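Researcher: Going back to the complex we discussed earlier. I've cleaned up the inputs and rechecked each line, so this should be the final set. Can you rerun the prediction on the complete assembly and write out the structure?
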Amino acid sequence: MGVAMPPNAMEAAFLAQLDENVPAREMLAEAGLPHRRIEEWKWSDLRAVVGKLPAEPGVLTFVAARESDTVAKQGQESALCMPLLASALSKELHIYTLKNGETLELNVDASAGFTHQQLLVLVPAGIKAQLLEHYTVQSCAFANLTLTIVVETDARLDRVVKQDAAPEGALVLTSLIKLAPKARMAQTTLGFGARLARIETHVSHAGEGAQIRLDGACVVGAGLHLDQTSVVCHEGAHGQTDELFKTVVARDGKGVFQGKVYVSGGAQKTDARMQHRGLLLDDKAEIDAKPELEIYADDVVCTHGNALGAIDDEALFYMRQRGLPEAAARTLLIESFLAEPLERIEDEKVREHLLALLRTRLGVVT
Amino acid sequence: MPAIKETIEDVRRLEADKYKYGFTTEIEQEFGPKGLNEETIRFISGKKNEPRWMLDWRLDAYRRWTRMAEPNWAKVDYPPIDYQGLHYYAAPKNASKYKNLGEVPQELLDTYKKLGIPRKEAEVLLGLEGAGQSAAEARTEALSGQVAVDAVFDSVSVATTFKEELAKAGVIFMPISEAIHEHPELVRKYLGAVVPVTDNFFATLNSAVFSDGSFVYVPKGVRCPMELSTYFRINAAGAGQFERTLIIADEGSYVSYLEGCTAPMRDENQLHAAVVELLAFDDAEIKYSTVQNWWPGDVEGKGGVYNFVTKRANCHGRNSKVSWTQVETGSAITWKYPSCVLKGDNSRGEFYSIAVTNGRQQADTGSKMIHLGRNTKSRIISKGISAGRSDQTYRGLVSVHGKAEGARNFTQCDSLLIGDTCGAHTVPYVETRTPKAVLEHEASTSRLSEEQLFYARQRGLDEESAVALLVNGFCREVLQELPMEFAVEAQALLGVSLEGSVG
Amino acid sequence: MLVIDNLQVCVKMEEGKGRHILKGVSLEVPAGQVHAIMGPNGCGKSTLSYLLSGREGYEIIGGSMMFEGQDLAGMEPEDRAAAGMFLSFQYPVEIPGVPILTFVKEALNAQRRARGEDETSTPQFMKLAREAAAQLDITHEMLKRPVNVDFSGGEKKRMEIFQALMLQPKFLILDETDSGLDIDALKMVAEGVNTLRGKERGMLVITHYQRLLDYLKPDVVHVMAAGCIRETGGPELALKLEEAGYDKYAGGGA
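Model: Rerun complete. Updated structure for the full complex:
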């Protein structure tokens, strides 16, 4: 909108691949890649970051425990820029239909250059399944991935997203989640940031009585940027949303939390709670947060809280008084701060794995 | 749930049909030319015999404004405003001086009566001959506490009471149009210092066409001996009101300023774009309270005031403090974010707000706290009540810069929904760049509880009183912050019965 | 004073369905008497208290309830309150931000206005409040708090009786006032209630246990089960129940 900017190298490369008159092309030509003057991206200037990365096609390697069930040509329409681009610029759409009791592991690795990919995960009615994702982005890579997840009636999905630190790469992972009546889902993200990483989750409580737990633990070290954005829409009544996000930022890292809960007029008896807690460890660290409520129904319980600060000096002193060295005490405090969302993972093996991963990485970052 | 439904109906009636300020004053008006161009600005400036520098300042603002776009990020929806279809100047004819009460048009006296200004004080306001001397008398007869009043009637400030008594304390309180002549050095130095000419579309428009408003200067070490008060009233049809207020509290001084706003019922929308600038030096404190009850339009959303206001304080000095308290019940559209720039070390900013929307009202309001200095503290308490088909948004920003070590903010936003056809939204932005700050934000949304209503009714309160009591309870933390004179009016406005004897 | 005649009531449910909860209750409490209603959980005791005070959600499908010659059915809750009907709630609701004294003063004056009486002056009101508070061991600090907020279960019940002392109703319904009280608090509450006993005042004490009745000494005890009064007798009936329990009333049907 507004003043058209000349496309940067990355945008030009995308435009070159897009046919005339496709919506993605129009959107890109008009507004460019998301940048800080777009309200939803005000703290994550994707355009500026990827404009400096090499504008050549890269390779996306998928290592999945099994083949996808179907491969479709056409992607889906979206009002969101990045999914729209992923759909228009990726060759094919992989579709996985999960089986009862299945744990699907997806390891995604993006090489230097830009890549776009779309995935569709279907969780049929009544089943219970797990989805474990792991994303690595190589130096000079820009990966734009969109996952659409449909959880059918009475089905349950536990999802874990691990994202490795990528100091010279950029990642946009957009998840579009639709919950049918009485569907249940739990999602936990453990992210370490990138030159710019955005993990964006859209949840639609399309049916009545669906539940989601949406958690994240983010550790952002020197020179890194991690943006956790979520939009949860309650359309059906009696829906439940429980969000707990923790962000720890060290050195000159930047953490962004944006969380929106939308409750439509018909979504009476919605129970939505959102908490974000941030810890800044060093003088140059930055955290920006926007917890947002948009509510059109009166018989609801909706709350959000956001608290930002430093490590509690009193707790630190208490621990040192009991004999812990300062560094160990700090690490322990940070670890327990971040562990809270991870401890809500139901599967013990997965939970222990993530906690262990957090412990090893934390030493490096802080 | 019939009880809730009935209550909702009651509240609807209460708010939309009982707008007691919706009267017009039938007096002859003098209008400026319609539309906005350099001629309009010269006309306004000429009417006030302004010095050249003031005219140049306005023209500069106007030229910048023509290149600006109206902001559209707020969650309010209204048809485009025809800036060329408005009058930018309207004044009661011959409003300057009356010899005695008999000469004052009855309508004008009635206006003051309806505004709740006592007769004696109204005499002073109207500039009756000899009334200046009776100020003390007016005070003792009419008021429990001391309140100095400036009334802005459309574009002109009608009169300022207690001028002499304030002068004794060294406090300057006068219409800004007079201050431009009498204290040009102060006005020139500070006008636009807190809200720059190009700050935003509406502030720039105000800079170009502002007609009057209040000017306050409290000298070093002076505690202003009385509450200063201004009544703003839009009266003329098809006229915009653009008042400009500038308050300077010099080192170690204190002032409490009250602002009341009303407008008559009209079918068309009236535009109001004000700018308020507050400047607090070392150890100074400014308390700014507003009861805004501009005409909100009828239940169908016809008419009502478009209220686009820029209010900002610069807590420039060490240990300075500014607190904004507002009770917002009026206006069809509200776009307002009273802010504090906390520049001085240990400075403190507060924002206490009650906003009620009903009918088809839309309000997008909140506060900004910009922490620049060390150990700066801020506190935001916002209570929003939505009813009818209204839509209300709290929008706020807390920003802590790298050098603001020891900064603290606490924000609490609570929304109360009455009925299921309204909306309540919370959009807080929080930015921090130092680990040595603590920021907390809490928000909740709830509705008027059926259980509480029944409990109060079981003890004998009728539904309307029960609702009023519950709403009062919901808003209590903010009501407590209002100066006594305003608390009464505010509670009446909320339709709330009063506090008991123990508190 | 209170005459309930063959009262039959449904609870309104969603989608227009109803559940039959009172199946023909008859009961008469003359002025000056204290009646107790005892019964197992879910027998309809609390329904009766809500019905008498005018809570929504119930549908009267037969019978009547008359208070001093007035039919309660068509009256708003506040009109019943002004007529003198006071319900001490089983679970008093919290009302944040509204100080208890403000609330009681508003309620008292609203009732007085409705009865065409003059409002109580603040000094007079404060005098009454101090006396009532002293009797129930309610501190000045407690009186400054919002209605029922941050009170323990026992404190809430004391505050209910405090309000009764302040409002001086003609008729009291005590709905499980003994629940959540330790023995000292129970004694204190009972003493408060006993000072309200008088020739002109009637009371209906709804309880599950005997222990409150030890102090209140009811004139008549009714046993309610499955939506009906199953037995009526003197105070000895309560003692009997304490020993034998409600088993013999188990199973439906009048």
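Model: Worth noting: Residues 108-145 of chain B form one domain.
Researcher: Good, that matches what I expected from the previous run.
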